[in-house]
Design a protein that fits this description.
Layout lengths: L4 E6 L2 E6 L2 H28 L2 H7 L1 H7 L15 H28 L1 H21 L3 H29 L5 H26 L7 H7 L2 H13 L4 H6 L3 H12 L5 H15 L4 H4 L6 H16 L2 H14 L4 H25 L5 H26 L9 H19 L2 H12 L2 H33 L2 H20 L11 H4 L13
Antiparallel strand pairs: 1-2
Helix pairs in contact: 1-6, 1-7, 1-9, 1-15, 2-3, 4-5, 4-6, 4-20, 5-6, 5-8, 5-9, 6-7, 6-19, 6-20, 7-8, 7-16, 7-19, 14-19, 14-20, 14-21, 15-16, 15-20, 16-18, 17-18, 17-21, 19-20
Length: 500
């Protein structure tokens, strides 16, 4: 066992718990679902900027990006609906899969859902890497999306349920940390494969997704399902044994009874999606929906999906744009570690509010610089202004990485009651994938239409996010997951009106 023991309380009962080896291994293995998701986010932008990939699937864009070809606008080089569909089709499939994943997660458990996600992702990776036509390429992306939908449904719930209360935030953020690591690795892979001879580097990049998929598949075979899931499905003794194993203490009876009580309420719910509409479920539901909307309308995935394309648009050469993507990816990883360290110490609200200010300022600066210095046709940014843009992009990515990135998944996963937790996570993933799809499908067209104003558009959304956080997002630090109603919602100035 690692670490010392501590207690987490619910009502007047204290739960004994240690940070056990079983918890650490379970969380590391489960969080590889985030690695799988992050790798795909990072890989698509680099692939779509590779000339060999464009030449094979998008010859019109390939011609547009050649130096001798006259372009209508710097901002419109990559504006193509089919190119955007290559990126966005995964998220369209993921949002559909997330709704199917909810009953699967509830009936078969978190472990089996993660296993299925890994297997489907392996098949999708193979199809994408070997594709010879755009249709097969899109089919592979759709299968990848199914894997992402199931993994994003099961993994955050798994992490929230298996973690001891006082480190639940840090362990849950393992999922987001792995997303950022996946993005960073994908950027590095793209940088190396872009230099390969023979024009097949993009295939190597896409094939690399099989590694996190295999890790998730193997991990799901190794870990135990959560006590909450086992007890909810009627395996009470097995659930108690797993609870004893992951807590590292013999006296698990108080926590077992707490979960048992919640599971009895959960099994009586025949239609959890319908129950989400009941008044007492509205606070976590509304917050979950809004956080997913806001997370995407910060513009983060526009940058992560299309970072090489974006930097190319701003006048960076191919190698420089991929290198800049590696820098932003590295910042993303390091600053997510800040969140792991601080989320259970300073709390959720402080991180969210600070990030809103930092993201707003950095995007406004980027918009102003581009508006003043990057013209439509022939002018590129000077070296000084180009570096300023990279610094501001990194500043933006840093603030997102320690706040809305991880907390957009953490807060919904820890605030729904057990009886609607799986359905609530499903709706959360669905909403996230819906707006991710919208951004992925629309960003290059929006960049062409709005030009530098795209950053001012996203900054306006960040301002709205800050107002929403100040008034409507409560603090959930150190609150046991089954006690959110009593200790959070019933104490909140606005949400208490929905509780009974």
């Amino acid at each position: 066992m690692a670490g010392g023991s501590f207690t987490g309380s619910t009502t007047d009962v204290e739960f004994e718990a240690k940070i056990t080896f079983a918890v650490i291994i379970s969380c590391i293995m489960a969080a590889t679902g985030g690695l799988m998701f992050g790798y795909d986010i990072g890989i698509s932008g680099g692939v779509t900027s590779m000339p060999s990939f464009l030449h094979e699937f998008f010859p019109d864009i390939y011609k547009r990006t050649q130096e001798e070809h006259v372009v209508e606008s710097n901002y419109c080089k990559y504006d193509n609906q089919k190119l955007q569909l290559f990126t966005s089709s995964l998220y369209l499939a993921a949002l559909v899969a997330s709704m199917v994943a909810s009953p699967v997660t509830r009936k078969l458990g978190r472990k089996q859902t993660m296993l299925f996600a890994g297997l489907v992702f392996i098949v999708g990776t193979a199809l994408s890497a070997l594709a010879r036509t755009l249709a097969l390429l899109i089919c592979g992306r759709i299968l990848l999306g199914c894997g992402v939908g199931f993994a994003n449904q099961a993994v955050p719930v798994f992490l929230s349920e298996i973690a001891p209360t006082r480190i639940r935030g840090a362990l849950n953020i393992m999922f987001q940390l792995n997303i950022t690591i996946g993005i960073f690795i994908a950027n590095l892979v793209n940088w190396f494969t872009s230099k390969m001879e023979g024009g097949y580097g993009w295939r190597v990049s896409l094939a690399g997704a099989i590694i996190p998929a295999v890790l998730l598949t193997v991990g799901s075979l190794i870990v135990d399902d959560t006590p909450n899931s086992l007890i909810e499905r009627g395996f009470e003794e097995q659930g108690k044994a797993v609870l004893r194993k992951i807590r590292g203490v013999e006296n698990v009876e108080p926590e077992f009874q707490d979960i048992l009580k919640a599971s009895k309420v959960a099994v009586e719910v025949k239609s959890p999606f319908r129950d989400l509409a009941k008044p007492h479920n509205r606070p976590p539901l509304i917050i979950a929906l809004c956080m997913q909307l806001f997370q995407q309308f910060t513009g983060i995935n526009a940058i992560m999906f299309y970072a090489p394309v974006l930097f190319n648009t701003l006048g960076f050469k191919s190698d420089a744009s991929l290198y800049s993507s590696v820098i932003t990816g590295g910042v993303n990883v390091l600053c997510t570690l800040v969140s792991v360290y601080s989320v259970d110490k300073v709390g959720r609200r402080v991180l969210l509010l600070e990030a809103c200010v930092q993201m707003f300022v950095s995007q406004v600066v980027i918009g102003i610089v581009l508006g003043m210095k990057l013209q439509d046709h022939t002018d590129d940014l000077s070296t000084g202004y180009a570096m300023l843009v990279v610094v501001m992009v990194c500043t933006f990515v840093a603030s997102f990485a320690w706040s809305w990135g991880p907390l957009g998944w953490l807060i919904p996963s820890e605030t729904f009651p057990l009886e609607t937790r799986s359905a609530g996570q499903s709706v959360t993933v669905f909403t996230n994938m819906l707006f991710t799809f919208v951004i992925a499908q629309a960003f290059l067209s929006m960049l062409c239409l709005f030009k530098f104003g795209i950053f001012l558009f996203f900054s306006a959304w960040v301002f709205v996010m800050g107002i929403f956080t100040v008034f409507l997002i409560p603090e959930t630090k150190n609150v046991p997951i089954e006690d959110m109603a009593e200790k959070v919602w019933k104490q909140h100035w606005f949400w208490k009106r929905y509780m009974y």
